[in-house]
Amino acid sequence: MDLIIILASGVATGTVLLYATVGEIFSERSGVLNLGVEGMMLVGAMFAYKVTAATQSPLLGLLAAMLAAGAVSQVHAFITITLQADQVISGLALNFLATGISLVLGEGLTSLRDVVPQLPKFSIPVLSEIPWLGDIFFNNQSVMVYVGFIFIPLAWYYINRTRPGMHLRAVGEYPAAADTLGIGVYALRYYYVFVGGLLAGLAGATISLSISPGWFGALTTSGQGWIAVGLVIFAQWNPIRAAFGAYTFGALRRLVLDIQGPATVLGLANPFFYNSNLGFFLKMLPFAFTVVFLVIGSREAMRKRVGTPAALGLPYIRGQRGL
Amino acid sequence: MAKEISGNEQLNVVSMLGVSKRFPGVIANDHVDFVLRQGEVHALLGENGAGKSTLMNVLAGLYRSDGGTIEVNGKAANFGSPREAIEAGIGMVHQHFMLVPSQSVTENVLLGLDEPRFRMNLSRYNKKIEEIAEQYGLHVDPAAKIWQLTVGEQQRVEILKMLYRGAEVLIMDEPTAVLAPSEIEELFKTLRSMTAQDKSIVFISHKLHEVMEISDRVTVLQKGKVTSSGIQTKDVTRADLARLMVGREVVFRVEKKLVEIGDTVLSVKNLKADNDKGLSAINGVSLTVSQGEIVGLAGVAGNGQNELAETLAGLREVLDGEIIVNDKDVTNNPVKKGIRQGISLIPADRTLVGTAPNLSVTDNMIMKNYDQEPIGQGWIVNSTEANSYASDLKEAYEIMVPTIETSVRLLSGGNLQKVILAREISSEPKLMVAVQPTRGLDVGAIEGVQKLILAQREAGAAILLISEELDELISLSDRIYVIYEGEIMGQVDDGDIDKIGQMMMGARLEHIEKEGVA
Q1: Same domain as B492, residue B459
Q2: What is the DSSP letter of A127?
Q3: Does the structure's ipTM exceed the value 0.90?
């Protein structure tokens, strides 16, 4: 059990959560809650693996994953934006649909283990030599981890400092106001649900092509999509907080695995080593922490009145409010 | 007091001829003529539902007309969206502000524009917006977030938004409804400085004295039809306008009988409570209300009135202080106990708090006594009794509804309020807290609701009337408290509107009396 290893692999697995969480942030900022993240990630992971197996190109696999998950997200967009149905129910249904699709199309992929190329891993020359930090962030990480580093500030900047970002926030906060100023509320919501889908697909591809390569059916994502949905609230719809939460949860997942290894921890007998049934308890912990984070995050958000897009979960119907 | 009009013949910036607009079941505008000249303030007067807002929504591109012609600057126009309208120079400031609360003033002004393309250089645009604000006397900090602003400031942002887009015609939909008297003065100054710079203004209102004060010409609508098109304001009297608006002579005073004031019913001492955000909303309020007395509570919206009403009804936690009703301490009592002790609340939100929209008239009427004999018999609700109870109330309160099985969401505002009043009054309350009981109702319905409240006073109930309509407060109340930021600024017994206005803006009564009335 080495702390550096846990943190480094926390950054790697956290990258998956990062893409999914920021994708959901985009969707929710526009006012659409999409609980189908887990399903979309699964679709992404499966398509990435399948297309890479067929073409031998992880890059094509990545693109296919994003487009496939993006396409799935549009089912949710149509149901909630055009048909104005309940976002929670549609999102839950989307999970079943997407999980089903990926399990059927993913039939037989598990056996392809050795013939599917992965996304490259490398170290960043100078940065990796910084003591501690270099080993955690820049030493032999997947290319997707580095893309994630760049992606975080860009996403924040886009949302908070650009014109399209301002329109995105307006549509999620007060769509009627945006509508009177000629901003296409419906089109923008479709677009950002699609962006959410693309990023969920990217998260899925990051798993199956790089972080824990392979296709293991529904276990491939093993509930990370749900953690991402929770992290959005903890992050208060802010990509930078999301990155912090994602890496922390990544490290937590790794810790839960590693803590079962040694016979003694801090000089005491390790109960998790001697009683393997306690492993189930450990596996539950990240989800329990999600609940705790949710409670803390939403209380804080309520007190400071930050975060929650005011129109989140509400379909926009022109002329219903004040007009 | 009408403004002088320059001698020259003015240009017609907007002319709407024979415009009609139908909604399912109603004709909102029936061949309406409306002509706006450059540089004037043109009032559009009418009761609620007369079709004023509909007509202007047609002009501003929110609705499409079903007939008639519209010309803007001599060119035919029929806008399909607000954006097209604003590009033609027509901007509308809605009654409900169209502002994103979490964004800054500058962001709200820039929303939906093509400029800047991508990167938001806010400090540069802050300056630009400050310049326009300066030009028209619209004082507001461009970097402030909307939720930090007062209602008056938010309205200025709305006006700025339209001016920044180059609006030549500004439509103001009931702009004074949410403002305190001094803010109204400020707004009128702004409007005048805009007309001085050749902008034209449509001023939608149903308040006669404001129309008399600010407008150059008036068009009056009644039930979708024009009863008077573009008459000079200085040529008419207030009574003329009232007749044109309502279609009959209107009595401006309510008849109030002399009632002996009895024992103190409600006594609130040093009350403190938070709002939903966990911030202090009521900060040490003390007041009393006695039998046979209507006590008004004046204040600009959002100064703790709703929270106070909720603590009295037991809907909100009291953090400090006490509430005593008929010598019993009811602080933080469960709501039901309060109801049994004769506390009744007429909430501001009729549709979501006052009633359950999808339930029938009967269900809504028995909500407070469904568990009492004869309607409630053990755990059974006797529906025959409930129906006859509801039918009786429907007759007594003249509620216009097809059957008592109808869902209340289908009722008009006036009828809905009568359902609530019927329920509350029939429980014979000792203390009635009425929040904005006439808001959004038309003149006829307002009269009915006010009569019911006065009848309660004569029956010996103690009534706390919370309202933003100063006219109503002054005509109904025996005394008026003024609340500002959760504190009582003072009490007025003689309906002195100047004092009330100053207190609404945060001046304490002692202070005003020391300084002398301004």
Answers
A1: yes
A2: G
A3: no
